Each structure stands twice: as C-alpha cells, then as structure tokens.
TrEMBL record:
Major localization class: membrane
Protein name per its UniProtKB record: CSF2R factor
Entry keyword annotation includes Transmembrane helix: yes
GO molecular function annotation: cytokine receptor activity
Gene3D superfamilies, per the entry: Immunoglobulins
Domain of life (superkingdom): Eukaryota
Membrane topology: Single-pass type I membrane protein
Phylogenetic classification of the source organism: Eukaryota, Metazoa, Chordata, Craniata, Vertebrata
Keyword flag Repeat: no
Length: 153
C-alpha cells in the first residue's frame, strides 16, 4: 500500500533552500509518533530524465538521526524536482514523505555586488550603481526588482 507504515511516523516540516548559487540545504523533523530508532533517508530527482540521488552529506541530530541534508552542485531546471524521504525502524514500518518543488522558488538570492555611489553636491544628486547577483536559473533578467532606501544625515 502507498501509505504503509505507522501513522505519524513520516517526517514533518520539510523545507529546502538553495543558496550561494549551487548549494541546497534541506531539513525536516522526525515524525511525532516515530519510534526512537527511526532513521530517515532523503532522495531527490531534478527532472524526469535524471537519476534519483540519495543525500551524500546528512545533517544529524544529537541522537545521530538524519534530520537534514546538504547537496552540492545543484542546478535549477525547468521541471519540478521530486523529493522523497523514507525511514526505517526495527519497531515498525515508517511512512514516507514526498513532495514536488520548483527549485527556483526556493533559491535565496545573494545581495547585489560592486555597489558604488557617486554624489554631486552642486547638482544635489547621486548615481548609484551595482551588479546584479548571480543566479542559477534561466529567467535571469526578469527576476530582479530593487528598492533603494536613502537616509540623510
């Protein structure tokens, strides 16, 4: 059966974020009714054509239970990525958790770089310039809106 396993044993509060262009950090909490010996394993698939990959670098809690994962060299495609977290326990079957996520929606963008400010006191104006941060997905020029907050002394 699809939902085999003890109720409340699947992970909770699953979330992922992509930062520094190609690193992805995923975290979760153990199911509230999961046995103490439950160990979780995360798999993900970037697109239908890619192979499913297991986490290579787990984040462990104080009981050595896998509670997160760091992925390196992540590329953002146009399809939703598929995530699956299953678990194992000697006491009972553990329910799995799965979710499809648009990776571009979880990318944390870096701030602009090379910010310069040139002010002309005679004209009473300033020119502010910057470089947009690097991002890993395709709609590079359509994603950015900046707000400048100028405070006078």
């Amino acid at each position: 059966p699809v939902f085999a396993g003890m109720n409340g044993s699947a992970i909770e509060n699953f979330s992922c974020v992509i930062y520094n262009i190609f690193l992805m950090n995923c975290t979760w909490q153990a199911g509230r009714d999961a046995p103490a010996d439950t160990q979780y394993f995360l798999y993900w698939q970037n697109s239908r054509e890619d192979n499913q990959m297991e986490c290579e670098l787990y984040i462990k809690d104080e009981n050595c239970r896998n509670m997160g994962c760091i992925f390196q060299n992540v590329s953002i495609g146009t399809e939703k990525a598929y995530f699956l977290v299953n678990g194992s326990s000697k006491e009972s079957l553990i329910q799995f958790y799965d979710e499809y996520i648009d990776l571009y929606k979880i990318e944390k963008l870096m701030p602009p770089s090379n910010i310069t400010v040139n002010c002309d006191e005679i004209k009473n104006d300033c020119i502010i310039q910057w470089q947009q941060p690097q991002i890993s997905h395709s709609n590079k020029d359509m994603c950015f809106k900046y707000e400048i907050n100028i405070k006078y002394k």
